[in-house]
Every structure is written in C-alpha cells, then in structure tokens.
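Here is a complete protein record:
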Amino acid sequence: MSDERYDDRQFWLPALYQEQWVPMVRLAALLVRPDQPDLAGAEMLVRDVLVEMYRTDATFHSWAHVVSTLRANVTSAARGVPAESTGQSSTAEHPDALPALAGLPHRLRDVVILKLYAGTRLAETADALGITRRAARRRWQRVMVELTRICDQPDRDSLEETLGEALRGVGDRLAPGDYRAEVLEQARIAPERRRSWANRAVVVAVLVAALAAGFGLSTLWSAPSNQADPAASTAVTVSGPDQTGSDSSAATTQDGVQVFYLGRSDGLLYREVRNLPTVGDRLNTAVAAVLNVAPLDPEYISSWSGGQVNKAGLTGNRITLDLSQSAFAQFRNRGQEESAIQQLVYAATAAVENGAGMWVRVLVDGSPNLPLIGKPQSDFRRAGPNALGPMWVDSPLAGVTVDPGTMKISGVVKSTLPPPQWQLYSVSRKKTVALGSVTTGGVGHPWTGWSQEVLLPDTAGEYRVGLTIGAATVWRTITVS
C-alpha cells in the first residue's frame, strides 16, 4: 500500500477490503473456533467490523495503523462470538493440537493464533489484544506450557511448528466469498456523522482546557451538583508503593475510564468516558487507551498514534509512566509533544484517587530524556485552569445505540455561564423533535454538573443530540433501535 490516503475513509475502506478481506476472515474464523471454523460467521463478523470502522471514521496515522486497527477490532469481536461445534474436526492431520488450543480461554489461545497464524510480532500481538508487550509475552509463555502439558509434547519448538502448520492448513482451506459490494453498500448507508462545528470554539475549549488545566475529570455525574474541580476522580483508588499493571483476569473491563483527545478543528482537549478492556489496573488501562484507542467522535483526534506502556505506577505523590520509544515517533516539534504529554497527565491523574495535584513523570524505555524536550527540569502537572473550556459533554457518547424511552445526557459547565440548551434532531425527518434546558447544580463554584433526562421517540432511526451555549453547539449522533 504505497498511497498514503489512509486518512480518507472513502479511500481506505475499498483498499482495506481488497488487501485484508481474505486474511481477516480466515483469522476471525480461527479466533472463534480454530479446530472447527465457521466461515459464514467469520464473513459476517469482518463485514460488520469494516462497516463500523467506516462509520466511526477514526483518525489513522499510517496504513499500518489502519490494518492494525482492523486486526484489533476483529480480535475483539471474535471474543464475543460463542464457539459452537460444527461437527467433524477440520484437523485430521493434527488430531490433538488444535482441539487442545480450542479448549483454552480466548485470552490465551488468541496469542497463539495471532503469532503462529497471522505472524504478528510481539508489539503487534499486544496491540491486537489491547495489552502490554510484557503481558503478551507472559500469556505466550503460559499458553505454551499449558499446551505442552495437554498435548503431552515436551518439545516446545516441535509443538509450535505443529500448531503453526495446523493453523495454516485450516486457514488456507477457507475460501471467503466476495462481499465487496455489500460492505461498500452498508458503509454508504451507515449513519453519517454530520455536525455543524462552525462555532465550536466554546465547546472545544472544554477539553483542551481539561488537558491543560489543573482540574481532573470524574466519571459520569449521577445527578447535577456543584463542582469545584470537574476533573477530580473519586471512582478509582490506586494506592501503595510503585503499583504496576498485572495480567489479572479478575476484571475483563474497566468502566468509566477517562480518555483525552484533541478537537480536530481547534486542538483543544476533550474527553470520552469509555468502558475498555482492562490492561492491568485502572491507571495502566487509562494510559494505554490514550496511546492506542481511537476516539468515537470523528471530530476528535489524538497526538498519540500507538506505542506501549512499559510500566505505570504510583509512588507517594508521583505517577511514573514508562513508555516505549515508538510512542514518540510521530512528534515533529516540542509543542506537539508537550500537548500530547498533557493528554497523558490528565488521563493518569484522573485514574487515581485524589490525583489532581500529583506530579507525572514520563520516561522513554526507562530514560528521563524525552525526544525533543530532553530531560525536563521537573515532572509534569496539569496545566492551569485558564486552558479549560466552558463545557464538557460526557453523555451520550458519539455513535451509541440506545433503546426508545428515557436517555440521560450529562456533563459539566462553568457556573458563570447559563445552563446549556439541548435539542433532539431527527435526521430522517430533518427537524428538531424536542428541546429544552438542562438542569444544573446551581452557582457559587467554578464548575457545576448538569444533566437532563430526554424522552426518545419510539420511531427507530438516527438522531442528533445538540448542546448549546451561546453561539456554540456540540452535536452527538445516536441511533434509536
């Protein structure tokens, strides 16, 4: 792929289908059930992933990033598919290897399939699974120990060769059909995220302000209340000396993780409150998300475009983030890097209890000498409150699908401003179907929470929720099922 128009979904979708349809369908089939793959189910899975990637219109920094995002999305989607037996095993020449692999949990067997079939390197495997390289290496070692025991084959090299041959044999026998026309047609009718951002400066200032400001972000407010610090986190506790992520399976997701992005049009900081696959503890999950998770809202971008969290821990009043050198590869000037570091500072301090005033030390593969910046004279803290914008919209997230009935919208706003006005716009009817003012927690503090319950129509379709302060309106597109 020599053409670099990877930032244009009208271009990358057909190119991605042409290049990756067959290998990704085969990969999906093996991820769901390596010994008895379901080709038709895998075709539907990859089709839906491609359409959803088009629909979210994420920001990519390279063609490799487009492909790795597709691989990660296919891997994640495959975990949610129940593996039903389809009858006779497809691995007569390897009667034990793949059934043994299929009997292991996804978190272990996926490492094997990605490495031995898809041929991913350690970093690529970690990216596809949403974990650190260290965790991916541990899983690989653990699964090989387990498979040598199950297959009664102590020669690990021989077992790897057997598994690789078996996976390639099954994959090569799968012949995916041509779904190009269907993928492109479904993409064309997928909800477009049309927004009027001409006067967006006020709202965008919200999150860049967030990034640069000394306020942390909390999880969604259950009710409007006065907020002296809209970014203060009370949902997470990270305590004890030098805590780091673990490969624990106790929790598979972290809910309400605050991930920070920049407005595409103005470069100000925004957050999305996301439920994400867990990467060790909450701190590791939040930092890894800033580096690798694409925003849901197409009007958001990130200064980061990949990389690994070698270690993220808390000691006293300092959070230490050790990142891979590859995470810094795309920065071209000091200002861009400093802005990106503020994304990390906000995510990290929001992820720990009472983290707003903490220092954040950023390392590169263990070294304090950062690219472009060098060795900072001090650790990093949240930038001043003057960088904070007037309003943050936490709910709904862009692109969500909701049931008819009551939906709660929420966020925070500066107490000196009037309450935001909301409206519900029907895309199919091309008209506003409901509007009003949100309920806030009053004045007297720099910030106040706001929320409102909005009654959604029974008519299914695409709707846009607009929040307005003055001349600025921020839109969130939702689908009523």
Notes: The chain has a mean pLDDT of 79. Residues 9-32 form the longest helix (24 residues). Residues 9-189 form a domain with the Butyryl-CoA Dehydrogenase, subunit A; domain 3 fold (CATH 1.20.140.160).
